[in-house]
Structure formats: C-alpha cells, structure tokens
C-alpha cells in the first residue's frame, strides 16, 4: 500500500462523493456555530423551508459579541443583543445545544469544544470562523467556512470542498528559556510569510510539537491561518489521549477503547510524501513580538526592526505599515511604551496561558500606565484560575479578572483599544484597526504580555523569570 499522510487518512475517510475536476462532497462530524455568522444561515433555511439535518452534531456558543463585565445585565449594544438573541432562538427552534451567556459551559467556541470533549481525533470540524483550525491540534481536519457554507452544513451535514495540497513543518530540538508555543508559531509565520502556506493544509511534526502540551498545540494550529493555510493539524498521541479521557462528551468504556484503537492509527506513514516541507531548529527561536500590521511582521524580541530591503512586500507597503505603527527601520522593540495588555482569545485564553502570565506577575505590580484586560476563554478556565490561586496572584498585583469572551481580539464588543494606543496582545491578528479603529497591536506570548504589563514597556521576559 502507498504510504499516506495523516491529512489524507482523515480527508479520504470523509469524502461522500468525488466530482470529476471539481470539489469533493465532504461529510462534517462537528459543526460549531456562534452569534455572528449563523443568523443569515438560519434565515436561508427559513426562506427555503428546510431544517437542520443533524442537530446533535451542531453546537452553539456565544462569544464574539459578549461583554466581559456584568454579563448578568442586558447587553447594551443593540446589534450584539440581536445577534445573541437570534442564536438562542434559532438553537431552540432546531434543537441545537446552546451555551449562551451565564451558562457554565459558555466561552469562546474554540476553547469550549476541546475542553468538553466535543473535539476528537480523526474528525472533520467546521465553524463560521477562520480560527477553527485550532481543533486540528487533536488530529482533526478543522477549518473555517463562510455563511452560505454554514447554511449548507446545517441543511445537509456536508460541504463542497476542493482538497488542499499538503505541507509539513518540522521543528526539532529544545526550546530556549521563555520560548512558548506562541513564539514557535510567530517564528514560523515570520519565516514563511502570511502567504507562505496558501493552498495547503499543514501538519506540524518534530520534537517540539511532540513535547508540547495540548494547550500549546491548539495555539500553534490556531494561527495556521495567519500564514495562509487552510488549516493545521498535529498527530494524536498519548498527550492527546490523556487530555481527552474523562471529558464530558468523550466516549466511555468500550467505546473509548474502540475509539482509542482507531486514533492510534492516525499518523503519517514513514515514507509519505508532502507537496512542500520545511524544517526549523528550535534553538533559533526566541521570545517573539510583532512590529507591523500583519502576523508575519515579527522578530525575536532582542532583534531590531528589519529594513525594507530585507522583507517581502515592497518599500511603499512596508513604509505604510511602519508609519501606522509609529515605528522606524532598525529600531529596537525593547523599551517601547505599552498602553494596553490583553491576554485571552482562542489563541491564548486557556489555563496554561494564565499560569504563564502569573509566573511573571507574581510578587510584582501592574505598571501604572498599563490598562490590562485579563480574559479567560471560558467559564471552566475562569474556575481553574480561581481554584489554582492565580486569581489571588493577579489581584495582589493590581489586575482585574474579566468574564469569558473573545474580548479585545477583535473590535466587535465593548473591549476596544483606543486609536493610537499600543496593545501587547496574545491574540492572533494585528491588522490595522483589528482591535479598534486606529489601534496598534503587538502580537506576543503570555510571558511577553506579562513582562509588558508589569514594566509598562516591551520587555524581554527572560530578564524577569
């Protein structure tokens, strides 16, 4: 038999029908929906007079429009309130599980799926949200879809999709001090550029990913989209199985044993061929920070901003980006003033991220010039923060813990960075205005965010650990 990749094994098992010179009709195991992209899809069902084919395969949670303070009060913004209400109404009408505001299972869609055991190896998973690739950390094929495709999955549990090409990214060796999964992914994107994986589905392999926690793997797969990939995935292993065992919606008893036997087959065969492959050395990665207006404009925190000649995109585009950020070529990022710090999002809103943040904050005080938004990815994460004593560390240092939601990842709720202000953010995108009109975003890890939060400037976390 011809050696096959992990991606091929999962993809081919879900093809319902192949269309000659066209896309595959592709079965979807899990469909996550939230309040932003689903209302129009449900309206389409109404217009056509059709229902939801498998309501038990669809899971709804509110996250993008949710406030992160006073969630017990009515939502003030009328558009947000309408979208949240529509999600609740549509879920009830079609018998879809719905975790709205104040539900103990509520949280960011890509956080609550894995922590409740809905996300499993070998599955196909979609959501009307580009960062659905997060779920690929479990050896699933997961990707974002558009509103019309949300309607298609609701009505047929299938989607029409051309099969992407295959890429493997290997990172081998041992990571240095204060280098986190976020730094690994920012490094890879900086090397490949934001278009470097366009048209590909990426498998991450090598020592670094094998030794990474599930939280870390989710961070890496989450940002596959930022280098143009359709999605990213990591082969399931004992780390995956340990994470999943006993979670609410994972198989139990004999069903668990049967599932486990299948999951252990989900790995790339030794001689399988990829369309493109890259290999990086872990020793070359240091804590990272972005300086521009796309996630590929990142450097090691000790390095200087590169010159236009050494980056892709042309001088005019580069100058525009640096002008927006208020930075210049060859400047050091260290010591640059910070106004806001945000830890949270589907990239870095899990318990491991808050443990890292607290490791630097402990025994220190929040800088007076910094406004900090500390936002857990779910109520389950919020409970862990309190149970583990992280809440006490944060409070003693002068930080306030907010309630779960997408928060300042995107300017779609109350948590907006003001124009001209600098935010060190653990989220995934630093486009112009992404976190608020005129806002300036520096993407970084929870450790770099914590270092900025206590010093008030961009600081190398290695100096504080």
Automatic annotation (TrEMBL):
Q: Where is the signal peptide?
A: none
| One GO MF term | metal ion binding
The alphabetized list of GO BP terms reads: L-leucine biosynthetic process
Q: Which PROSITE patterns match?
A: ACONITASE_2
Q: In which pathway does it act?
A: Amino-acid biosynthesis; L-leucine biosynthesis; L-leucine from 3-methyl-2-oxobutanoate: step 2/4
| Reactions the enzyme catalyzes | (2R,3S)-3-isopropylmalate = (2S)-2-isopropylmalate
Q: Which UniProt keywords apply?
A: 4Fe-4S, Amino-acid biosynthesis, Branched-chain amino acid biosynthesis, Iron, Iron-sulfur, Leucine biosynthesis, Lyase, Metal-binding
Name of one Pfam family that matches: Aconitase
Identify the residues that the record assigns to the Aconitase/3-isopropylmalate dehydratase large subunit alpha/beta/alpha domain, covering every copy: 8-456
State the needed cofactors, names only.
Answer: [4Fe-4S] cluster
Q: Quote the EC number.
A: 4.2.1.33
- Provide the binding site for [4Fe-4S] cluster: 346, 406, 409
- What NCBIfam families does the record point to? leuC, PRK05478.1, PRK12466.1
Which family, according to UniProt? Belongs to the aconitase/IPM isomerase family. LeuC type 1 subfamily.
HAMAP family reported in the protein's UniProt record: LeuC_type1 (MF_01026)
Record text on subunit structure and interactions: Heterodimer of LeuC and LeuD.
- Indicate what this protein is called per its UniProt record: 3-isopropylmalate dehydratase large subunit
What is the scientific name of the source organism?
Arcicella rosea
